[in-house]
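Summary for the steering committee. One of the milestones for this cycle was to obtain a three-dimensional model of the protein with iron/sulfur cluster bound, which we needed before selecting residues for the alanine scan. The sequence and ligand used are listed below.
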Amino acid sequence: MRLRIAYTKVEDAKYIAHLDLTRVFERAIRRAGITMSYTEGFNQRPKISFGFALAVGTEGEREYVDIDIQREMDLGEALARIQEQLPPGIRLLQGRVLTQGAKPLMAVLNAASYRMRVLMALPILPERLQEGIGAWLAREHVTLSRFTKRGPTEKDIRPWVKRLEGEIHGDEIIFELEVEMGNAGSVRPEEVLVSLRELENLPLDLEALHIKRTGVHVSYQGENTSPLEHDGFVQLAEQS
Amino acid sequence: MTKYTAAEIRRQVERFLPKVLKPSRYLGTEWNAIQKDWHKTDVHMAFAFPDVYEVGMSHLGTRILYHLVNSYPEFLCERVFTPWVDMEATMREKNIPLYALESFQPLQAFDVVGFTLQYEMSYTNILNMLDLAGIPLRTEERGAEDPWIIAGGPCAFNPEPLVGFIDFFLLGESEEQLPEVLGLIAEQKKNPLPRQDFLRRVAQVQGVYVPDFYHVNYKPDGRIEKIEAESGVPVVVEKAIVQDLDQAFFPTNPVVPYLEIVHDRMMLEVMRGCSRGCRFCQAGMIYRPVRERSLETLLKQTEELVRSTGYDEIALTSLSSGDYSCIQPVIEKILEKHGDEGVGISLPSLRVDSFDVELAESVQKTRKSGLTFAPEAGTQRLRDVINKGVTEENLLNAAEAAFKKGWSTIKLYFMVGLPTETQEDIDGIIDLAKKVANLGTKLGRRNITITISTSIFVPKAHTPFQWEPQEAKASVELKQRYLKENLRDRRFKYNYHDVKTSYLEAVFAKGDRRLAPLLEWAFKHGARFDGWSDQFCEEVWINAFKELGIDPHFYANRAMDYDDILPWDHLESGVAKQFLVEEHHRALQEAKTIDCRHNVCTGCGICPGRGVQIELKG
Ligand code: SF4
């Protein structure tokens, strides 16, 4: 039985590295007394797969995981038993049983949205902020140099950004960002802010940046849907 | 350093945590981590492992003691590890004191900070951790506000280089001793005695060594003239022993880390001690006698471990698990019960002569990881000197069985620089490696890899080789080069230990308290993580010896006499010095000594009068 589960990765759980997350779920499921399905071959791995990696330190309000378990069981019960064994900060929100042949998460997810809280290094007027964001969005290309293992490379981050909004709250700005994601890569939210600061001269204090991924989506013709609603499903259970 | 509260530290650390490597190292929120109420507990202990998280969390003793102390409602125990260099730099820059993982309380706020001494090369990390915590390094600079700084573990059997930094040491097994010490600290908090009076009191606990009360005089040539104990403390401090291992505390709800640690699995301690009597091995001497856990206890513990951790692998640990008398049934029963849940077994300390390829086959799900053999020396003569009861025939039989069962990777461990070693013994290593490789080829295995690893002999306190010098650096290097040139075949992979660090290890292993200023100097000039080849800086140490006028050869390369007073003569592992002398004699005569686990006692002296004996369960 294949499950798709929506969960949070917040508070201290945000420091769990993406690479370690498989083990966290695997051990929780084993503690819950549920038998997972394994890959065939020499090095058997449990069949657990995630969507796009979340950077260490970034909270995720609604992430997804697919898990294969060996025996049929009640979805609500499975979620409840696994939840009991998960560390604080990882809360199961919703789950569905996938039908045979449903596409994996990585094949359907293609967009993500972020909320970022940034302190202003100097006071910024609301008009100035909107002007800056507008000017940034109006650019056709935004080139950023990055240092990779193979030396400095340049990349255009503008095409990945679908939406960028900002609003001042006290001494900080709250940005809402929506980006495209794909196998070809994407843009990191802090890269958008760095270029906004550099190109549009907005005095942002990027030292104490607070980023949250509010969701990952299946985006089709301008419409965002959740991967839970996307394929053929047979069952839906809510976690309270 | 500014005084920070736990909440302030947490807030500050959270600001930069995403930017350091592996931030999960610095949070105590793992599964099964114990969050106790600071205000509802009498004694607060920080258990400090002077290395990174991944190394410290892999250490069984650390896990046992963490859960043991927390099993007492009146005590609280939290963990702290050495921050990796990036974290240290940030903490220093932002002036954040070292804190314990669970509560983020600064170390300074604890009543006790207990270091575990697993290897000499971690000593500078201890000083670094105290310094990062804002705790004065020297005992005499510390006041009533500062925590007691204590230390235990194998290196506590010669802790002299740390005298001056540590208030007192715990020798031997701490399961009963540590709670007793913490009980005294609880009383001390209620009705404080002057420092010296408290120390005198704690010195009465079995295995507690308070160096302040022992005075060392030296001869003009630098050797020890005498070690004198003050009245009211034991003249010789003898280790604590757990009498009934089967009933001893063992945590079955261990912390399960988020990041991958070195030994990322459940650990089941099947027995303690080893009676084979390899003459270079300190663990084989100081953890005597052999005591086994019963099959029932182990199966019950396994059941609980699987339920509470969710791990898919269980290691049967001890110094030599193949010797455990119920090894076969315990493996069968565990696989029978938990095999379906995908739980596998690993045997980290298999030895050639107790090695049974069938056994290895039943535990290893895949054959990729290879099998490890430790003949330790290249010729039968030298193996007799070190009392390693393995013959070439044993090894080749085991290798043959392994190749036939499908293994193609075999690892061979040797030591170079052993007492009486000659060129013939070095050639013996090459010879043995070739024989194993040729055997594999003859049996038709393709892609054979024979990994030959050589470590460097480091003479250790409380072993029959404690009087021996370490071989000079230059000649060890020649031997390593020779091996490298002669193990060129595609089928071989040759690894060897760094001469510089092994040399320093020997200095501290055989060192005395005159080395404490050296440690401090080296630490203040940047030495830390000396056991990590990418962090070790030889220059600092060369300068330290020069600056302080200390001759490292005096410690590492000097043969000691039987009537020399050794820096650790006032500390006792229970194995009689006379036995060690006899064993040393026998080594030089190339005479073997039998394993005492089966009926014949060889008279090491640990069992009589201590209420302990060899305890086998099979
Ligand atoms: S006293 Fe005898 S039986 Fe006991 S550990 Fe020593 S040699 Fe073995």
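Key point for the committee: Residues B 275, 288-289, 596, 601-607, 614 surround iron/sulfur cluster (CB under 6 Å).
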